[in-house]
Amino acid sequence: xxxxxxxxxxxxxxxxxxxxxxxxxxxxxxxxxxxxxxxxxxxxxxxxxxxxxxxxxxxxxxxxxxxxxxxxxxxxxxxxxxxxxxxxxxxxxxxxxxxxxxxxxxxxxxxxxxxxxxxxxxxxxxxxxxxxxxxxxxxxxxxxxxxxxxxxxxxxxxxxxxxxxxxxxxxxxxxxxxxxxxxxxxxxxxxxxxxxxxxxxxxxxxxxxxxxxxxxxxxxxxxxxxxxxxxxxxxxxxxxxxxxxxxxxxxxxxxxxxxxxxxxxxxxxxxxxxxxxxxxxxxxxxxxxxxxxxxxxxxxxxxxxxxxxxxxxxxxxxxxxxxxxxxxxxxxxxxxxxxxxxxxxxxxxxxxxxxxxxxxxxxxxxxxxxxxxxxxxxxxxxxxxxxxxxxxxxxxxxxxxxxxxxxxxxxxxxxxxxxxxxxxxxxxxxxxxxxxxxxxxxxxxxxxxxxxxxxxxxxxxxxxxxxxxxxxxxxxxxxxxxxxxxxxxxxxxxxxxxxxxxxxxxxxxxxxxxxxxxxxxxxxxxxxxxxxxxxxxxxxxxxxxxxxxxxxxxxxxxxxxxxxxxxxxxxxxxxxxxxxxxxxxxxxxxxxxxxxxxxxxxxxxxxxxxxxx
Length: 613
Fold this sequence. Notes:
By secondary structure, the chain is α+β, with helices and mostly antiparallel strands. It contains 19 helices and 10 strands. It has helices at residues 2-17, 21-48, 57-82, 87-92, 96-125, 132-169, 175-186, 201-225, 229-272, 288-315, 320-327, 346-373, 382-408, 416-428, 431-446, 486-491, 518-531, 567-584, 602-612; strands at 329-334, 340-345, 454-457, 460-467, 471-476, 481-485, 494-496, 504-512, 542-548, 553-561. β3 and β4 form a beta hairpin. α3 (57-82) packs parallel to α9 (229-272), α5 packs antiparallel against α6 (132-169) and α17 (518-531) packs across α18.
């Protein structure tokens, strides 16, 4: 009853966390609040539109309002999302110190920097920019100073968040303190709180990077004062847009992370509902922790790629490095007439490497996402889920390699020599590797062996823990991992104990003395087998009087257990019960008996005695 209550409480806790409705409602509420002020400004700009002339006051105000509305909407969205009790701290579970710091920075940007930006944009077009290089430049520098203050407030929240994480995890900072801290933990001693006061190299580097980010607006201000006002203006606009879009991408990533977390809880709840007790069989189990790690890594990589792609498009027009990469030619592809068909530059090489990196991340972490979104909804066992994930992983890898080759300008005509070399190598020494690869594909299609199966091959018995294209890993009962080429599973005899059914029969031989009551022995063995909780009643246990041995009457107790893994446990418990029951009922467990007769010759014995004397 206690297990049932705990399972019920676990199911209730999971059900409480498997709801996405509150997060969706908070998101809609934040968007609606964030759009009010920009919408009001757009109405004002719309009222000014009929009298729109760029150099007039109305035209300058209209131009400035249209220019700050996107930044204002993104900023207000971040402000409502990061405030106390908002979307990020309440639904995403982000640190309150981090959200408070970002919220203070965004608040400073909204109420100080954006009004100054509005004035700066207005003076840029008012009276054909007559005020741009005087009052406009002064307002622009003041705007940069307020942005620096806003960044400082945000970075202070980030530093507090990281320091609180270090303190919560009990991490020391300096190398000597970390070594002492580790030795203290290994020796079982208490944690010295004074070790938390130093500054590690990573913490110092993080603070230095945040300080550099804070100084960037001041650098732009210096460029404007030095006479490079247009350059500073363009870079400031792109930097502001980049930071705001990065914040929005972080919010979207948090929203997707919350959705995936809800999906994980729903998967766990679905598992608990598969039977009445709430216990999940090994063939149905899903490693939620591993899936969560894969999904989070994939989400972080996707967010990073989104930020890099956004930054690339924002800064490509003004960055000399990007223009240099596009102008640096690696090789050209020419046609039969000598005309250049395509050109591969350094930017293509960078994009190809990025494609390979993204492919590698996807191929490693895609199975977790498939488990949450697709595979768990299908009526598949553990082996079937693994096979689908395995095929998708290699398909993504193959498509990524093809796409990278396409970006770099490689075609089939360019790699024909590679196919020829592969065929030649196959004929000389790669036939075994090729045979293992083909065997791996056959195993995945026919599925005679699946992940989690209990198999015996070449005297090795254990569970299939991992399957790859070339080899399969088997973990035996001694917890050793054996790497077996896939060709062995196709050409050799393989016993799969769990291919179509988990049940297995166990036969125990018991020898009793000749004077024993055979009917009593039979009834006792059947009673013991039927009372054992792991012995199945269908098919029912049976006792067979197998033979008359040399000194025993041999009986066989044949029982069906639900899994082959339980053989040792069931055999031990049955033997203990049989020994106890036979002692109580005075049934003798026989052992081999031999009679030894010694013949002695009296004359030989006397001669040996005299010689010894």
